Amino acid sequence: MDRLNASTRRNFLKQLVLASGILALPISVQSASKSIHTRKIPSTGLDLSIIGTGTWRTFNVGNDHQARLKRCEVLRTFFEMGGQMVDSSPMYGSAEEVLGFCLNRLGSIAEPLFSATKVWTSDTNEGRQQIRDSHRLWGIPEFNLLQVHNLVNWRAHLDTLFQMKADGKLQYVGITTSHGRRHRDIENIIVSEPIDFVQLTYHLQNREVENRLLPASLEKGVAVIANRPFSGGDLFDDYQRYPLPDWVKEFDCHNWAQFFLKFVISHPAITCAIPATSRVDHMIENMGAGYGELPDDATRRKMLRHISALH
Ligand SMILES: NC(=O)c1ccc[n+]([C@@H]2O[C@H](COP(=O)([O-])OP(=O)(O)OC[C@H]3O[C@@H](n4cnc5c(N)ncnc54)[C@H](OP(=O)(O)O)[C@@H]3O)[C@@H](O)[C@H]2O)c1
Questions:
Q1: 227: DSSP letter
Q2: CA 164 to ligand 1 center in whole angstroms
Q3: Which residues line ligand 1 (CB under 6 A)?
Q4: What pTM, to 2 d.p., does this model score?
Q5: What spacing in Å lies between the alpha carbon of 305 and ligand 1's midpoint?
Q6: What pLDDT sits at residue 34?
Q7: 239 SS3 class
Q8: pLDDT at 192 over 80
């Protein structure tokens, strides 16, 4: 199935969606033909699909061949449904190597890829070597985005990345944090450094970034990647046992994954959310969040009231 033509692939996807029965029929059939929402990357004005994917834990499957093939199908579904940004890091064990394996297998199906990885070391020279290793592991000559992971040795690595960008070897430079860590430092960098992207944690139960980091990013024209949009899966444990209210259909929401993701991506500062999954059926649900209506401000408030009444 590596080299299916476009219409066979579309049919394959529709069959998959229908067989899984996880989306309501109208949106499942339509989502393969409608376009996914995109947001502009402020520093270039280029469009990026609003749902990307992460690889922490989910792609760290080492040499297990069956597990690798399963991840390739997850990625195939991602690209088939309009995904672009794939986020990884040298910190994620074998994830970059597994990604490279899948990108190679998927061939032209993976062409929409927007590649994003990270530098994660306290040693500046080792950081340069990490970037070379990441190129080799992914099997690509250039990344779209390189980020300083968790601000480790950030001043030195930003110098390296800005130089790569100036030399035409890198499109975008970014920084990352997660779990609400070091927000003061992140804000200072957003305001004072010419970064293109910031990656941070934003989800229904952790909205601290709404106070300062998201407004600062909007103001400075910095694209925002929302990591851990399911709080690492905890949101499912907390809410999935409850039925979804009927009114969520008004914004084309058909499952809890879409409830969580549509809340995140409907914030105007968010450029892309990067949920991670090891399963094709979950990938279909997650990508489905990028289609159809998004909640407006009043609906976002209603969503918050609804979940706080449940938990
Ligand atoms: N500092 C940083 O730079 C940093 C820190 C943290 C994360 N990140 C990035 O952000 C990405 C996302 O964060 P995360 O992986 O921590 O957590 P997440 O995306 O919030 O949650 C992932 C978990 O949700 C489950 N899941 C996904 N889709 C689902 C669905 N439709 N229904 C039910 N369960 C579902 C997955 O299990 P299944 O496999 O069973 O679907 C997995 O256990 C990471 O992979 C990484 O790329 C970056």
A1: E
A2: 29
A3: 54-58, 87, 149-150, 176-178, 199, 227-233, 236, 257, 274-279, 282, 285-286
A4: 0.92
A5: 24
A6: 79
A7: helix
A8: yes
